């Protein structure tokens, strides 16, 4: 029940100011967001990949209100790519992009977002890696999928994200699996109405398994975005039944959550990618991490009680 309340708070300017000003906030945020600049996260990338893990990098920030801000977001990713080029990690370091950062919600936003994201995808391909388009709230998805389809004409490794709690997702999964796409499956972390999304965790979990089965049996490359031990075990079993080799799918988890499990899966030979966010506009990302899992909220609450 707390999840919707936290998600509502993520859109509140008053709550943003209150939480940002709290002295205990930064140490807790650092658990999930290890830096604000490229220079600060390069050592994190080196550390994770040195342990046999892979990464997907997210420059956080979604509240874009001008085309100039969208251009700045594009340039931040291009700067990141320049640094990744020096590390020469190939697909071990890819990028995740929210099209809202690239101007999707502005007037003429679909074309603006496509124009801004294309040079990032081109630059990523030039250094041997790729981009995954993150899913946002359900009103943005038709545009995201259309941009994804357009980018795949020239860059077929461009991935996208689908959310198990949406009713539409099983049909989206079939289409993407048939086309051979890279697809990250997550449960979903936005507050969505009952008309479009499951409201109970048990329903979402069942949908997750149904959709994952579609992806594993399809022609694409499934990326399992979950920290749930039961779903991870189910994913391994579905992959085995589908005859997939260990390099024909991957697990993805958030930086700072179940780090021991990251290493365990990698040690077993699985591709294990750590979703690593950085940047100054961390508030919305941080609040969704709290909303996704009660343990994250308890972690934050304990920090307040012990340090406040």
Keywords for this entry:
8 strands, disordered C terminus, 308 residues, 13 helices, eight-stranded parallel barrel
Describe this structure in words.
By secondary structure, the protein is α/β, with parallel strands linked by helices. The chain is built from 13 helices and eight strands. The protein has helices spanning 2-9, 13-21, 25-32, 38-50, 67-87, 109-126, 141-152, 169-179, 201-217, 229-241, 259-267, 283-292, 294-307, and strands at residues 54-59, 93-97, 131-133, 159-163, 182-186, 221-225, 250-254, 272-278. An eight-stranded parallel beta barrel has the order 1-2-3-4-5-6-7-8, surrounded by seven helices. Helix 1 runs antiparallel to helix 12 (283-292). It starts with a helix and ends with a helix. Residues 303-308 have low confidence and may be disordered.
The Cα radius of gyration reads 18 Å
What structural class do you assign from the helix and strand content?
alpha/beta
Q: Characterize the main sheet.
A: 8 strands, parallel, barrel
Overall form = globular
Distance separating the two termini: 25 Å
Please state the average pLDDT score.
88
* Total helical segments: 13
Strand arrangement in the largest pleated sheet: 1-2-3-4-5-6-7-8
Helix and strand element order: HHHHEHEHEHEHEHEHEHEHH
